[in-house]
Amino acid sequence: MIGIVDHGMGNLMSVRNAFEYIGAEAKVCREPGELAGADLLVLPGVGAFGDCMRNLRHRNFVAALDEMVIGSGIPILGICLGMQAMAKRSFEGGEHEGLGWLDADVVRIRPAGREYRVPHIGWNDVTFEGNNPLFADLPADPVFYFVHSYHVQCRNSGDLAATCDYGGTVTAAVRKGNIFGTQFHPEKSQDQGLRILENFVRQGGQC
Amino acid sequence: MLKKRLIPKLQMKKSRFGNRMVLVTTVRFDEVMEIGDPVSQAKIYQAQAADELVFLDLDASVENREPVTDYIRRAAEELFMPLTAGGGVKTLDHFRMLLENGADKVSINTAAVENPELITRAYEAFGAQCVVVAIDYRQDADGREKVWIRGGRTGTGLDPAEWAEKAERLGAGEILLTSIDRDGTREGLDLETTRRVADAVTIPVITSGGCGLACHFSEGFLTGKADAVSAGTYFCFKDENPMQTRSQIRNAGIPIRIQT
Asked: Confidence class of residue A207 from pLDDT cuts 50, 70 and 90?
């Protein structure tokens, strides 16, 4: 079972619909107790970083996720803001502490040139770094849907799994062991996105 | 490289039966023609690699009723691309309702003009990327473009570029611009106003109203400097589809997504 962390923000329905479409069982979990038995976790997220962390704390998800992800090594996929929440801190509207799984900061993208509008909205080419099971069976020049104004800046280049170019290099995906994250939205990226979710589902039952 | 976007627009009216919405086309926001079920049509657009979809409830503001959510919930069950829903959105609860039913972005038009604070409150609650400010405009007697609300029934005297700039300042994440004069005419986009609005803001601009040929899309990107072009009538009658149009746009040297 895939446990989708419901921190009260974002397009949980779309994420659940996408997993159901590819034949996986996904459950939206409003409190940590409901995550019991999940062999995969998804941390979606749309909105502001501060609110996201506040809600995670308020619903007692922080310690539970730490235990499942860091303690038990259950694979987790963070999507967009969900991936950003995995960083140490974010500078979106002040300074906020994140889950701290990635040695990284979340900073505003500052593309060079007025033709680059912010938010970065739309389909962009993504370049994969290294070998990542999430990106198996995808075309060499994949295109994914982005919508964001901030991105994750990894201090450890080994955590960087994919980039895209938007008037500078933007972090498109991260990976650190069982921790996966995409800045783009696989659940909104049609066939290529569904393929990524399928690849993630294959990570289940391996820990 | 970031691709330019092609966005079929699904304009809807409430069906005479139940709570269903019916897909329609309009000419200059008038001459309504019923086409069919919006979700069925949306699925065809997905198969043809549309980049996003915009669903607009044309009557909600005029009839002063709540936004309908049934169609967006059905759409989100089977469509895996960004979905914008709009029409009659007046409160944060309306935003929440549509987002919870599967919309990724919510477009506001009449309420944004009447209560600009809603833009800021929605931005604070859901983030700029959720807040699309839709601007309908037409030329007045002295040749100036002016913003109209309530489905083109009420004039505001606002200049579209100035209003777009203010909307950005208040927290909008995207502008959806529609020329009422060009709507459904297939005569081509209003490139001049599109360009003026695109130059006035730093957020993405979707332009619409008037597409009748594939080259109209290319002009919108190249001359109008739009980030996305949206069209309703053009795609509704099936003579043209997003796939063919996309190839022609690419042949004009514009970065656009080809595969799904």
From this structure: very low
